[in-house]
Amino acid sequence: MDHVTPPCQPSPELVSRNARRKEARPGELLEAALDLFVEKGFAATKAEEVARRAGVSKGTLFLYFSSKEELFKAVVRENIAGRFVEWNAEFEAFKGGTPDMLRYAMTEWWQRLGSTKASGITKLMLSEAHNFPELAAFYQHEVIQPAHVLIRRILQRGVDRGEFAPIDMKYGVYTVLAPMLFLQLMMHSKNACIEPSDASAVDPQKYIAAQLQTILAGLCVRPSTASLSEKTPAA
Amino acid sequence: MDHVTPPCQPSPELVSRNARRKEARPGELLEAALDLFVEKGFAATKAEEVARRAGVSKGTLFLYFSSKEELFKAVVRENIAGRFVEWNAEFEAFKGGTPDMLRYAMTEWWQRLGSTKASGITKLMLSEAHNFPELAAFYQHEVIQPAHVLIRRILQRGVDRGEFAPIDMKYGVYTVLAPMLFLQLMMHSKNACIEPSDASAVDPQKYIAAQLQTILAGLCVRPSTASLSEKTPAA
Amino acid sequence: MDHVTPPCQPSPELVSRNARRKEARPGELLEAALDLFVEKGFAATKAEEVARRAGVSKGTLFLYFSSKEELFKAVVRENIAGRFVEWNAEFEAFKGGTPDMLRYAMTEWWQRLGSTKASGITKLMLSEAHNFPELAAFYQHEVIQPAHVLIRRILQRGVDRGEFAPIDMKYGVYTVLAPMLFLQLMMHSKNACIEPSDASAVDPQKYIAAQLQTILAGLCVRPSTASLSEKTPAA
Amino acid sequence: MDHVTPPCQPSPELVSRNARRKEARPGELLEAALDLFVEKGFAATKAEEVARRAGVSKGTLFLYFSSKEELFKAVVRENIAGRFVEWNAEFEAFKGGTPDMLRYAMTEWWQRLGSTKASGITKLMLSEAHNFPELAAFYQHEVIQPAHVLIRRILQRGVDRGEFAPIDMKYGVYTVLAPMLFLQLMMHSKNACIEPSDASAVDPQKYIAAQLQTILAGLCVRPSTASLSEKTPAA
DNA sequence: GATGAATGAGACTTCATTCAT
DNA sequence: TATGAATGAAGTCTCATTCAT
């Protein structure tokens, strides 16, 4: 309807409006859904609205996703859960010192996920987990757990290589996770975290850099005094 | 319009138990509403349930609050007490070193606020700020700003006294704030942050201690080097 | 709305229109539901239609019955399942010969149930059982089973007292049940069982009498030749 | 409009496999539809499912039948074959005693019709007669009436030959019909007639035998007294 | 003819809000 | 004031039917 279809253009690239759309449909729906879920939350997002934003009718949405919950899961899979494979691979392949690895991980995370719309999912889960236990379980299994595992592997690598002091892993993970989650929340709920004066001024890159410095200072064996390169050869 | 406090009641001795309860009504309703809003969010909290928990009927709720939205606003306003006066006074009076002050501040915050029901407001604001802009502004002014100011004063004190290395205040504040907010959220929404295995195991006191150690290690000029270096040789 | 409430009659019998209706409501809804279920089947009956016929709104129906299925169960309980207590009691109390008891049972069944609207439930279950397994299970447990038990008890009594020849109970039960079910179906689906010429002419009483004669002739020890009273003393 | 049979096809040898299938389409659809309508009822049967079972697409179904209702009507019409010509002929030719004829009739009915898929039409008519009055009339004329006539002729033959006691024909017919219909329904809707314990145990052959014995005991002038009285002394 | 993507009316159910008592 | 029965708008999901290819 809001899709201006040129009336008489039998050119070959007009590959059946239906057919072409069919392949694009799930993607369009997922994008519309992500927008709305992040903006209004899971419960407050109406299925019909998602469909309308994707330019289709209510019924079409349910042709591709059997329920609103499945749509949400698909959004999470597409935007977050599906990436851990790649991230784990990068972990295995990484050659440098662990402090550098942590720096790389956090800055890349921001580039690829934290700074995108998808990071709004975190906030969403925070408020809706209680009301949608199945969603919460899914998120636990597909996001929280892989994230914890990955961070723990990084920290453990540092400890194993003598770069980090031995720590209680449980709390170590949260030391890394907390600022990342916080940054996400801050970006998606400025009103509830940031001073108005900071609002436009907080630079995520710098924030991450600052957090990294603090975290590494806390983790590293000889914090800040000696240069890091002195210890890495030990590995 | 909501929250009708009768201006001139007969002398307190004369009011019947019923009447006394009448005055308590709004408070009981607000308390019940806080519990439920924090637990389930705004949309998922049913008006009737709030009323039932407060021991009145659905109709009565709407006698005191003209709508569910008004009830929500009243809940947030009611629970954002101006505790910063008291805390600022303590800041002025504190005599010890700034690392100790920071430790004191964070543990006391947990005792007095973080661990109480009122801390649920944080989570509420996070998820509902978008739908209640006026509330968000109110929260900004009454909570966010004073909190930032207080933390900044502490950090500045440390720098001024030569205990902390000079830092960019804006990010320093978040270094302190992030783990505190994260802890609150974690306690209120386990499903969305914590690995199930950690669920019952994360001890807020220890979490704060761990965070403090990391933060101080990052902030201090020569961060309690003594104690840290004593453990590191083992690595 | 279709309920003419006299405008100014504070007479005591105007016991609050709401209150008076509240007690009548479930009954009115059950009656409307029975009508419609029998007429159109379970699936084809719309909740709103039931409500409208009972003179209330959609929402009110769900105030009294938590779902369409529960409404149906209540209809079955009210009209059929609930009667077995009384019927079993009559069985225990019956003094005469078993052939008389069977005659009494079948004629009374017709008077109290078979000839009423409620007997349409049987037809309904026949077609909908497959699609509503929970309903089918309920009906099994609350209707089919008690009915089988009661008939079996009657037949067994006859056998035990030497009035009936020993028989395979399983098929004996169906010998009694089949004509009763058939009569119900016939009355509720004339088009599908009865010759048009018979339509208004089939007299259920006579039909039952005829069936009884056949059944008893088949069951009794010395069928039709000797009088029944000669054998009963043996019991 | 529905059921478009192409009037003048090229010679049968020339038609491609595809084309031959084309002619078979309506039949395949009707067969699939019969299965599903009998199993699940009209409303619960989905057009797409019928199409899929017939091996075509949803769209094709509507090419042959303009609506689900038309499909249903076609299914019923198609399956109400006029077998009564053949059965009446057998009646005329039968040489033995009328009790044997009745036994023969009932067992043959089960073999040839009762036990086949087509018997599901009975159940269908029962539940849907109300919604398809024209169909009901058709069924009346093509099935009910001939069946009544045939049974009445059998009974009358028995009376005329002095084998059966004189009876009111109208009710006599139902005495024979009831158990047959009941058996059909029972086989098609176990949940709504049979105790679960009987479910797998009811043997149609035995059921018919038992019913026959009862019916004949009721009808016969001195109903096989010999065999019966031989067993009764035991009581 | 055949396909299957798309549509949208319509069903059940929930719940904030009203109002007669 | 307090109650709680009643309302009806709104939301999720289904499925017969259409129609461009």
What's the structural blueprint in terms of helices and strands?
Four copies of one chain form a homotetramer.
Chain A: H1 17-40, H2 47-53, H3 58-64, H4 68-79, H5 84-93, H6 98-114, H7 120-128, H8 133-160, H9 169-188, H10 190-193, H11 204-219
Helix pairs in contact in A: 1-2, 1-4, 1-7, 2-3, 4-8, 5-8, 6-8, 6-11, 8-9, 9-11
The structure holds a DNA duplex (21 and 21 nucleotides).
Describe this structure in words.
Four copies of one chain form a homotetramer. By secondary structure, chain A is an all-alpha fold. Chain A folds into two domains: 12-72, Arc Repressor Mutant, subunit A (Orthogonal Bundle), CATH 1.10.10; 80-231, Orthogonal Bundle (Tetracycline Repressor, domain 2). Helix content of chain A is 66%, strand content 0%. In chain A, α1 crosses α7 and α6 (98-114) packs antiparallel against α8. The longest helix of chain A has 28 residues, at 133-160. Chains in contact: A-B, C-D. Chain A binds a DNA duplex (21 and 21 nucleotides) through residues 16-19, 21-22, 25, 46-48, 56-60, 62-63, 66-68.
The interface involving the most residues is between: A-B, 68 and 66 residues
Measured as a percent range, the helix fraction of chain A is: 55-70%
Examine the coordinates and then state which fold CATH places here, giving the name of the CATH topology of the largest domain in chain A: Tetracycline Repressor, domain 2
Strand composition percent of chain A: under 5%
> Ranges of chain A with pLDDT <50 over ≥5 residues?
1-17, 223-235
Count every beta strand of chain A, where a strand is a DSSP E run of 2 or more residues: 0
In the CATH hierarchy, what is the superfamily of the largest domain in chain A? Tetracycline Repressor, domain 2
Radius of gyration of chain A: 22 Å
CATH architecture of the largest domain in chain A: Orthogonal Bundle
CATH class of the largest domain in chain A: Mainly Alpha
Between the first and last Cα atoms of chain A, what is the distance in angstroms? 63 Å
The topology string of helices and strands of chain A comes to HHHHHHHHHHH
